């Protein structure tokens, strides 16, 4: 890494840490005022923000981005208003900071409690959509954290305009603007450097694809919350209501196919495959789904006009994010679990069954952030889970698992109060 | 890394993961029986274990290890009996696995709960003392986890004998011996390789010095719990009971100087330095303490026969683990907090004061796993905190902070139960 990168990142980290100390002192009410001020300033600067976004769109078209990508990065008046309106929802959430998780008087005379506190400094690396800039800044501030943002280069102008407005609002509240900092250079070396600022940053959240996740896992010396990759399965057990099972599978696949909790592979017990699969092919093909099926499953599609391919190791390991579904016939529940263990990304898995023992066994033996019985994988979501907000969806097991709400942006400290108490 | 290392580590990881599935199914009672069987088998194999330890001691002497180091690795009949007796304490602890942290019926019809489950596979890297082999294996099994152990080469024979006995007991209970695996080669490349087995290992706990901690932070692609490094401070505020403050400082320094929660630097408000420091020098010198003091503090030692040196950047950054104490006079509480922010390892920090506002301010502004008011830093300990066991002391903020009890060896999964419920 170049020396000027090093110096830039060090300054960024120091400023964030310094700002975090001021944020740790704020009351819930002060943080609410801060967020209200941010909403107002964003509204006041709407024209500047939309103009910056138009520039991003012009650049995106010039560099040949697809219409779908351009739609993702586009902000219009209505979308920006929604982003700003969402701040009100965060304002209304309970502030987890300051809660004492337990408090006891120890035999040694010490009053010991565990108090929820901000993490300190959070680094978030994300792609495309500019609303993330506002979402993350607001969630971080709500929990008393400073944040360093690194957005995609496609939305740089928008992100600069948004973060400038946020920083203006922070300053106007008499707080350090560096509570929210945006890395404005598109240089990738800055990402690698950011991942090693363990002296200043307490947690890294990468919100992006497999490549970004691996980069963070491999390069970071800071704890990273991996997530957002969902290779999700539903297993239809032999004792199952076939029509209802198909309805859940269809929901999990087609209700919103481009997101991480959408279904990728349906596993079907061999005893019911001949009844379930022809119906499933027909219904899902009507919804525009194509299939990658094992030989046994493919044989059951004979005579239907469905788009069906041979399943492979690679297709089973695929997060489709599209109207495509893997299909595999399995001998029993253990074979289903073994398949899931091999291919799951630990996001969302489910069993469809009428048998209570099969359900309990599956729940116990499948290792994922969310395990469902007779429900769609699409439920794995901060909003659906009632968390009020979603920082990310974690697929790792430490600190936060599954949809991450405000608590995931906090840690705790032990507080021991004595009377000049010594240890015996 | 050599290919045979790669193959060995892959097998190790796969076997551990496979064993973890069997452990996840055990009831609390079955795990208690397993631990009882381990205690009995260790007792039955005492002679073999002690003989192996004698071999380690012979080798240690031959390679010129210090008497202190040899004492650390020595097992005699009494020490081994203590290690085995400690298993009974773990048996009696409540099993955190299976607890439902919350359970609610969502508006969308889903019954959603969060259930505490084992992490899966835990990797522990440690140095010297052979009792850690038993401690960690027992705590991991108690929480339904498989464990991969990498002990120090100085205790290899002891660790082999101990883990062989543990594995024999596991097998006799009809469970997979690979629930506990010991890396028997001293090759350091295996440690680096272990840190990258993210497909199989869910958490790495390094129990060792700064060098090991940094190695893990830099090399691991698996979440690591850093900890065990304590650069600890006590700040004597201007409103303080001088004699009582000195007693707490003395306790924090001398009660057990070789451990991570022992005091490293005392910070003293300038208004009371002239009263406090001469007394402190005298009392602590009598207990064998030597000092590294700032110029202002050193001047106050004139005329005393104490061993006092000039404090430096390096001395302030030192975890002494010995009867040595840094001393610094500070202008006010903010200067004390600034010093702590610069040099603290985030382990244990404290304020000595009669002023309630100073205490609250310090607790809020100091970022450490444990923050004390009028108490010794020596309290940061799983036993003192009533956790019943101590896996390690974490100085990072994610997952577990401070003394880690059984819960730190668990995670949770979200469980959603519906009635063939789809998302709208």
Number of helices of chain A: 15
Assigned CATH architecture of the largest domain in chain A: 3-Layer(aba) Sandwich
List segments of chain A where confidence is low: pLDDT < 50 over at least 5 consecutive residues: none
> Mind telling me the CATH superfamily name of the largest domain in chain A?
Aldehyde Dehydrogenase, Chain A, domain 1
Oligomer: homodimer
Let me know the number of strands of chain A. Answer: 16
CATH class of the largest domain in chain A: Alpha Beta
Order of strands in the sheet with most strands of chain A = 10-9-11-8-7-12-13
Radius of gyration of chain A: 24 Å
Q: Largest chain interface and its two residue counts?
A: A-B, 72 and 71 residues
Strand count, sense and barrel status of the largest sheet of chain A are: 7 strands, parallel
Mean model confidence by pLDDT of chain A: 95
What global shape of chain A is seen? globular
* Strand-pairing-aware structural class of chain A: alpha/beta
Helix content bin of chain A: 40-55%
Number of domains of chain A: 2
